[in-house]
Amino acid sequence: MIQLLRATRPKQWIKNLLVFAVPLASGDLGNSNAVFKSLLAFIAFTALSAATYLINDIRDVAQDRLHPKKKNRPIASGQLSIRRAIMTSIVLGAAGISLPIFFSLWNLVAVLSAYATLQVGYQLVLKNIALIDLVVVSSGFVLRAMAGGLAAGILISPWFITVTAASAMFIVSGKRFCEFRNHGENGETRNSLRTYSESYLRVLWTSSMGLALVFYVLWSVEIGVEGKHWLALLTALPFTLVLLRYAHHIDSGDAESPEDVVLGDVGIQVLVLFWALLFAVRVFS
Q1: Which of helix, strand or coil describes residue 17?
Q2: Residues with Cβ < 8 Å from 116, sequence gap 6 or more?
Q3: Domain that holds residue 89
Q4: Chain centroid to CA 20
Q5: Residue 69 above 80 pLDDT?
Q6: DSSP assignment, residue 82?
Q7: Mean of the pLDDT values across residues 160-188?
Q8: Which pick of 176, 231, 243, 276 has the fewest CB atoms within 10 Å?
């Protein structure tokens, strides 16, 4: 059971907290209905994404065994059988889709279906196409961020979507940059590495970071209400520092695992808390 839990990558569940982003930004976290529907979105995405992680590890088992860290994953190391992983993936995937159907949250069903479709396409073809593989992985972050708002019927700002998309591309391309730097371009641990160069990946993550900062400022101007424009803009400061500190990890080559960076860097955690505090004051004061 422990190995099965490990295979669903609990550390990566933190990404599913994005479903609460829209309700937070709109000030609807005090609305019990919005919180309930966002919580359903969180549970559904956790189940569905866990199912995709299992399938991913099954398909990549040969390459994972060549990776210095991934070789210790339950399936790659042989601690979890492929048969049991497949059965669990089917159960989790069905549960993730069935939950919003039971509550008639059809917008959420559409988002989850889009996520599942992209994951299938990624596993079959898209993971081996340069740039498209990064776009697909980044879209997972965007769909998570949209899920909570759509489930709760909250209007989503286009600038919010662009901030999320650019930030996601920054993290994902930074991860690929570190993989390229640490494991080379031979593609033994990931086929798509053969189609990249270190300079191109650096252009992707640096430009994505710049776009994320610009889009965030534009979004903060949009959400600033009368008398609180300065407070909305002030939240851009910790956001910028978080991205710059994360960029240091990318440049050092130790951002292969984004969740480990976030959970292991106290500076990033403090800045995120500071950002959350400023944002909460803006929303609820």
Answers
A1: helix
A2: 48, 52, 93, 97
A3: 1-155
A4: 13
A5: no
A6: H
A7: 88
A8: 276
DSSP state of 256: S
Count CA atoms closer than 13 A to 172's CA, side-chain side: 22
Which is nearest to 88 in space by CA: 47, 141, 29? Answer: 47
Q: Are residues 43 and 150 in the same domain?
A: yes
199-211 b/e (C-beta count within 10 Å ≥ 16 → b):
eebbebbbebbeb
Specify whether the CB–CB gap between 237 and 230 falls below 8 A. Answer: no
Contact residues for 110 (Cβ-Cβ < 8 A; gap 6+): 150
In this structure, which amino acid lies at residue 105?
Answer: L
d(CA 285, CA 272): 19
Residue 121 shares a structural domain with residue 205: no
**Which of 275, 273, 276, 281 minimizes the C-alpha distance to 227?**
281
Q: Are 33 and 152 in contact (CB under 8 A)?
A: yes
The per-residue pLDDT for 222 is: 84
Considering the domain architecture, whether residues 35 and 70 belong to the same structural domain is answered as yes
CB-CB contact of 159 with 219 (8 Å): yes
pLDDT-derived band at 74 (thresholds 50, 70, 90) equals confident
Q: Are 138 and 164 in contact (CB under 8 A)?
A: no
Where do we find the tokens 């065994």? 65
pLDDT band of 189, cuts 50, 70, 90: low
DSSP conformational letter for 185: S
What does the alpha-carbon distance between residue 154 and residue 283 come to, in Å, rounded to a whole number?
Answer: 15
Both tokens of residue 6?
Answer: 């490990």
When divided into structural domains, the chain yields a total of: 2
Nearest Cα neighbor of 54 from 84, 77, 78, 79 is 84
